Amino acid sequence: MGLFDQILGAVANPNQQGSLGQLGSIVNTVQELSQQTGADPSTIQSILSIVGGQVRSALQDKQATEGNEAAQTLVNQYAGTSANSEAVDSLFSPEIQQQVAQVASQGTGLDAGIVQQLLPLAVPLVLKFLQSGANAQNPQAGGNPVLNSFLDADGDGDVDIADAIQMASRYI
């Protein structure tokens, strides 16, 4: 099952945090970022996809060294639709932040400085998607299928935040 299927499952499951309101706030934030930067929504989605790949690597490292709970704690702590530079700093070193901005700039044509300014919004947004699978009553309880799918426990590499955002905007 793909990432978006997991997200839809979380929306449909009252025991998980996912909701249509949550998806709507994520899609709206993408639209706002598009308006603020003058970039089209597909460019913002591409940036989120590139950032999402780096978030996945950082969370996989966290999971490998500190366990599933540590990765879930990071998601719960920093997920949101508001800018949060602590979220970026908790996942990426300054060097990685610059690399992400450069790669996103090359992939989208958007200035690397603008991409770097978007990171404090992009990272919490990606984490907000992942939080949708958390247990509604006890977010720290194990078994977040959205996060597990994102971290791609089966190793098939079939994960893309941009596709999930695009599907969410169609779904809403």
Quick recap of the structure?
The chain is mainly α. It has helices at residues 3-12, 20-37, 41-66, 68-78, 85-91, 94-108, 112-131, 145-150, 161-171. It contains nine helices and no strands.
Structural class: mainly alpha
- How many β-strand runs? 0
Radius of gyration, whole Å: 15 Å
Quote the average pLDDT: 81
Beginning-to-end CA distance, first to last residue? 20 Å
Strand content: under 5%
Helix content: over 70%
- How many DSSP helices? 9
Oligomer: single chain
Query: What are the secondary-structure elements, in order, as H or E?
Result: HHHHHHHHH
Could you give a short account of the major beta sheet?
Answer: none
Can you tell me the overall shape? Answer: globular
Enumerate the spans where pLDDT stays under 50 for 5 or more consecutive residues: none
Question: Would you kindly provide a written description of the structure presented here, covering whatever features stand out?
Answer:
The protein has 172 residues and is mostly helical. Helices cover 72% and strands 0% of the residues. It contains nine helices and no strands. The chain is globular and about 40 Å long.
